[in-house]
Amino acid sequence: NHLFPVENNGLGFGGADSHPSHFTLELGFSDSLSGEVKPRILLMGLRRSGKSSIQKVVFHKMSPNETLFLESTNKICREDVSSSSFVSFQIWDFPGQIDFFDPSFDYEMIFRGTGALIFVIDSQDDYVEALSRLHLTVTRAYKVNPDISFEVFIHKVDGLSDDHKIEKQRDIHKRANDDLADAGLEKIHLSFYLTSIYDHSIFEAFSKVVQKLIPQLPTLENLLNIFISNSGIEKAFLFDVVSKIYIATDSSPVDMQTYELCCDMIDVVIDISCIYGEAGLPYDKESMAIIHLNNTTVMYLKEVTKFLAMVCFLRKESFERKGLIDYNFHCFKRAIQEVFDVRLKVQQNRKLLSQRRWSKLTSMSNGAASNPH
Ligand SMILES: Nc1nc2c(ncn2[C@@H]2O[C@H](COP(=O)(O)OP(=O)(O)OP(=O)(O)O)[C@@H](O)[C@H]2O)c(=O)[nH]1
Ligand SMILES: [Mg+2]
User: Fold this and answer.
1) Does residue 76 have its Cβ closer than 6 Å to ligand 1?
2) Does ligand 1 lie within 6 Å of residue 77's CB atom?
């Protein structure tokens, strides 16, 4: 494997080696034999639409204002995100205006291994060109791999009023789908999100994109449903602590405010722990926090795995039965562990298989070389 990290994000999660593996990697295709297949998320869209900013804000904790100084991307930047066994994928940040007709750009290979394609449209700019680009990209990608989920981020909506946002979304939705219908490709499904790096909308949208790539999602949701209904809890989220992406929640609807409160709580816990905690990781087995809000709601955070946290919302009265909640949580955690173990086994089997296939291949070619006549 001759890929090398060129940039470490420095999220401040303990020492460099204790940090989950977030690295920006030079583009390279040599790791196809390394066993684990990580779903790929592509960030595409016109120049200056905000692709790199999204990646930096969500995965590098860059503050939104700092993105003003980002330089234009001139080559594909690949980053591995594998902070937990469930959340494990690669993000490929593309330069704007990639040329599909450039022979050095092997888009077939790129799309074949892609799980989700995020197309970013700058909503503060004229989007006619962006829409035709979206159409071209989506139809190309679909031809190579019809299983890709297509996600359209109507981005930079911070400058728009609520009415304006809805109006833009409706217009873009209609035009994009009309273009597909004209090409006889109605079966391609596009999902739309209104996003901005200046609020939590980008994290929420990214959460939904990532959730589609987690095959165990229904199981996780089910476990959360069982957990909350037996514990008197109103809402529970399973969070990836580093990126603040929620990888699952129970089946009741999510409102933005609740999600924002969860993000704030995680920030508070990590910040306090970084400043006042003992040396070492700011997030570990002991990590937990209880916050009483002034509207009789209690927020309860608990560690699930090294990189996952559960954040629950419940009424003050329900929190009186904390013993029951903790017991149910313990059962939940064990169930999660079992899901992890199954996944691990599947991965190991896959690795073994590909190793066997590889050694068979090499022994065959060795045989051919040692017996030329
Ligand atoms: N108002 C606003 N500006 C944003 C948002 N996201 C990104 N920007 C700004 O948009 C500009 C371009 O951002 P980049 O992330 O470099 O865009 P890009 O799509 O990576 O551009 P290329 O690499 O050239 O393709 C920067 O000045 C960002 O600060 C947003 O949500 N709202
Ligand atoms: Mg860029």
Assistant:
1) no
2) no
> What is the number of the ligand closest to the CA of 123?
1
Q: Which helix (H) or strand (E) holds 238?
A: strand 235-240
Give the Cα separation of 67 and 84 in Å (integer).
Answer: 27
Query: From ligand 1's centre to the CA of 71, what distance in Å?
Result: 9
Rounded to two decimals, the pTM is 0.81
Structural domain boundaries enclosing 255 = 216-348
pLDDT, tens digit, 9 for 90 and up, residues 314-338 = 999 999 999 999 999 999 999 988 8
Per residue in 302-313, pLDDT (tens digit) is: 999 888 899 999
**Residue 113 placed within a domain:** yes
For residues 162 and 221, state if they share a domain: no
Q: CATH number for the domain including 191? A: 3.40.50.300
203 and 70 co-located in one domain: yes
65 C-alpha vs ligand 1 centroid, how far in Å? 10
- Check whether 253 has a pLDDT greater than 50: yes
Residues lining ligand 2 (ion), CB within 5 A? 51-52, 73
